[in-house]
Amino acid sequence: xxxPIVKPWIDAIHAYVPGKAKLGGFAEPVKLxxxxxxxxxxxxxxxxxxxxxxxAHRYPDPASVxxxxxxxxxxxxxxxxxxxxxxxxxxxxxxxxxxCGQGDEIVHDVHGFSLxxxxxxxxGAEPVAAGxxxxxxxxxxxxxxxxxxxxxxxxxxxNNPTGTMIGRAELxxxxxxxxxxxxxxxxxxxxxxxxxxxxxxxxxxxxxxPNVVTTRTFSKIYGLAAERIGWxxxxxxxxxxxxxxxxxxxxxxxxxxxxxxxIGDSDWVDAxxxxxxxxxHWLAGEIAALGNAGLRAVPSxxxxxxxxxxxxxxxxxxxxxxxxxxxxxxxxxxxxxxxPNALRITIGTEAETRAVAASxxxxxxxxx
Length: 368
Ligand SMILES: Cc1ncc(COP(=O)(O)O)c(C=O)c1O
Description:
The protein is an alpha/beta fold. The protein has 13 helices and 15 strands. The strands form four sheets. It has a seven-stranded mixed sheet, with helices on both faces. Strands 11-12-15-14 form a four-stranded antiparallel sheet, with helices on one face. A two-stranded parallel ribbon has the order 1-13. It is globular and about 60 Å long. The site of pyridoxal-5'-phosphate has 13 residues, from helix 4.
């Protein structure tokens, strides 16, 4: 029987595995599996979204003008060189689709964001995983993975799921080592959490260099993951291409209004950053105290910590994950991303962060 045949490069995709949100036996599990803002959206964003409900019969602004202007004002950018997307996911996928196809290669960190290989395959290109060094993007290994077939390099800075970042000189060295026809995509989903003065946000690069694009999201520090809003800033030619291939009404009205309000509520963003820094520091200390059992908190610049475990014995990441779930806590175990010996733990509220630390300690003491 003839049947529709999926394209082989689409068939090769391993579907994205989202963080778990449900846990049997718990009406409201502690959800530390998706790097969301534990403080929630700004109350101003909630009010702005609610105010749009009566207009839900109207299509949203196809050009997201108010949102692009708010982003441009906040970050000091040209609104004409910003494009908004249905999450930065959409824009990352569209960049791959627009610039890569069969026979091409897309390079990413072996422990990079799991959407990158999906975006590569969806475009028909081959994802190429470059090694890292101690969970940190290694510029030399990325450059060594570039071949004549390379068309695009994805770099998340800070990186997910490792939380590590590279500094200004390294990012510039990466760009300098790429051919001009290779697009460098700097994914700054967690940029607003970074306080290191050596951080390069990539905006000046994306303003001045014809092959650099930056992406950002409202899903993390702005607390609007459910609304699916991201944006990209880059060379006019690239932005024009993204505007050709994106869906016409890709930013919903409620979320768009919420994002404008969220970006205007700098007190909420600052409070979120301060909360994250305080409890990330605290949790890293709690994990360091379990160092004798082989646990290690990889230094993080983001709103989560990668915790590594011994590969064998009673105290493994898999066993810890199971123990956390018995306590109603969801984190991210990462065997599918080449990290079977690690858990990624989002910084939660104070109570959630204390709960995950206490549960880990209990597990270690019981298992030892
Ligand atoms: C590094 C990185 N980039 C992009 C995204 C996508 O975010 P969104 O599509 O919600 O904007 C995420 C989400 O977890 C991420 O971790």
